[in-house]
Write a structure and sequence with these properties.
Layout: E1 3-10, E2 15-22, E3 44-48, H1 57-61, H2 64-67, E4 74-78, H3 94-109, E5 119-124, H4 126-137, E6 144-148, H5 155-159, H6 166-173, H7 185-194, E7 201-207, H8 213-223, E8 229-234, H9 240-253
Parallel strand pairs: 3-4, 3-5, 5-6, 6-7, 7-8
Antiparallel strand pairs: 1-2, 2-4
Helix pairs in contact: 4-7
Length: about 270
């Protein structure tokens, strides 16, 4: 199936930026039961990277292309640098780029569905936060959101001297602890519920040995009554091995309408 690297100018970011795209191909290698099912407009998954990588990470370090081969799913992997997928007070409008501009760009380039029921978002670490952040603030846009080893307590990033420089802390957080503020996920979930919004189906997956394990447990306990959210835990650390296993599981979990009920994809989790 086609795997594409695309560079384009972003009006929101006001810079050239890149995306990786995995695009369905209906060909002689497509299993026969799927040939009449895999057709446009295709569902789309926006797949977000962590703080140490870029849009190529998912392609380079996991088997995601193999996992989606028989799914008829477009996978879009953008980059936002180290910006945490928020609108930075002294930087870039990464949230607006991911949730507003990028879907329009993809819709103009590819035959993708514009329906909520066919649109999903997921990410790892910083990208796990980004996926839940987008889902909470734009619940009418996504049918499902998945966080793998997500930085669900954004204050962890603010406090980290190892991960964030003083300049980045100013650019991204205005030198203010984001806990309890507009970019706090718990606050975002609460506000969505108060506004009568229906939050997407969600899942948080985290390894038992991950340094973010306890934060994910605490987050789940705070929001489990606010949304249709699952918690997956298993042995594993903050590693690509864990993310590879769990993106496979997430892909099976996604509520993709056009998948045949009686066809079992190659990647079915045992």
């Amino acid at each position: 199936m086609p795997s594409l690297h695309i560079e384009f100018y972003s009006d929101v970011l006001r810079i050239d930026t890149g995306i990786e795209v995995i695009y369905p191909q209906n060909c002689t290698r497509t299993p026969e039961p799927l040939r009449d099912v895999i057709k446009p407009p295709f569902p789309v998954l926006y797949l977000l990277h962590g703080i140490m990588r870029d849009q190529t990470g998912w392609i380079r370090f996991t088997n995601v292309e193999q996992y989606v081969m028989d799914m008829g799913l477009v996978v879009v992997m953008p980059t936002t640098g180290r910006g945490h997928y928020i609108n930075q007070p002294h930087g870039y409008r990464y949230f607006d780029y991911i949730t507003q501009e990028l879907p329009k760009v993809i819709g103009n380039m590819f035959q993708v569905s514009q329906k909520r029921e066919d649109t999903f978002i997921a990410g790892l670490s910083m990208g796990g936060y980004g996926a839940l952040h987008a889902a909470a603030l734009c619940p009418d846009q996504y049918a499902a959101a998945a966080s793998l080893s997500g930085v669900v307590d954004i204050g962890v990033m603010y406090e980290s001297k190892e991960l964030y420089s003083d300049a980045e802390r100013l650019m991204t957080f205005d030198n203010k602890d984001p806990r309890g503020g507009e970019n706090d996920l718990v606050v975002e979930f609460q506000n969505a519920v108060k506004a009568g919004k229906k939050l997407p189906k969600m899942v948080c997956a985290v390894g038992n040995q991950d340094f973010l394990h306890d934060y994910n447990i605490a987050f789940y306990d705070k929001v489990k009554d606010l949304a249709d959210i699952e918690l997956w835990t298993e042995d594993g650390d903050h590693t690509w091995d864990f993310w590879d296993r769990n993106i496979k599981r997430v892909l099976q979990w996604l509520p993709i309408k056009q998948r045949l009920d009686d066809y079992k994809p190659q990647f079915v989790v045992k």
